[in-house]
Amino acid sequence: MAGKVGRPKTNGVKPGIVLIRAIFIQEAFIRHRQKGAKYEFAIEYAMDEWRTQFPRSRISAATVKRILAETMPEGAEEILIASKPEEKTLDEHGREITLTVKEDDRPKFLHPSIRAKK
């Protein structure tokens, strides 16, 4: 027998770029939704930002939706959220912090017409 055929077993282990992409996409999506972009446009903006930062890496709307479903499941009260700091901050080694990840409430995005009434 020559060996097993098909994809090798990874036992759920994924490359680090998968986590980086998930954090990047989630942060971009949330930021654009909080600015008032509709769902589909926020997905497009997140894809555009990913393609700008990583031009050789491909990403589709379906991949973005899958990432959002994994990182922000419906009905979850708390999720891990990545966000950019308001001000330029440095870590203990003097390096600039570009993203922070924390456990927080799942964001609720209001329709722009409802947001305008408040």
Describe the structure.
The structure is a single chain. The chain is mainly alpha-helical and 118 residues long. The protein has one domain (16-117). It has four helices and two strands, in the order αααββα. The chain has helices at residues 16-34, 39-53, 61-71, 112-117; strands spanning 78-83, 100-105. A two-stranded antiparallel ribbon has the order 1-2. Helix 1 packs across helix 2 (39-53) and helix 1 packs across helix 3. It is globular. The model has no long low-confidence stretch (mean pLDDT 83).
What is this structure, in a nutshell?
With 118 residues, the protein is mainly alpha-helical. Helices cover 43% and strands 10% of the residues. It is globular.
Strand order in the sheet with the most strands: 1-2
Q: From the helix content, strand content and strand pairing, which structural class follows?
A: mainly alpha
Helical stretch tally: 4
Order of helices and strands: HHHEEH
Give the DSSP E fraction (strand runs of 2 or more residues): 5-15%
What overall geometry do the principal axes of the alpha carbons give? Answer: globular
* Total domains: 1
Gyration radius, in Å: 18 Å
Name the helicity range. Answer: 40-55%
Termini separation (Å)? 69 Å
Major sheet characteristics? 2 strands, antiparallel
List unreliable stretches of 5+ residues.
Answer: none
- Mean pLDDT comes to 83
Number of strands: 2
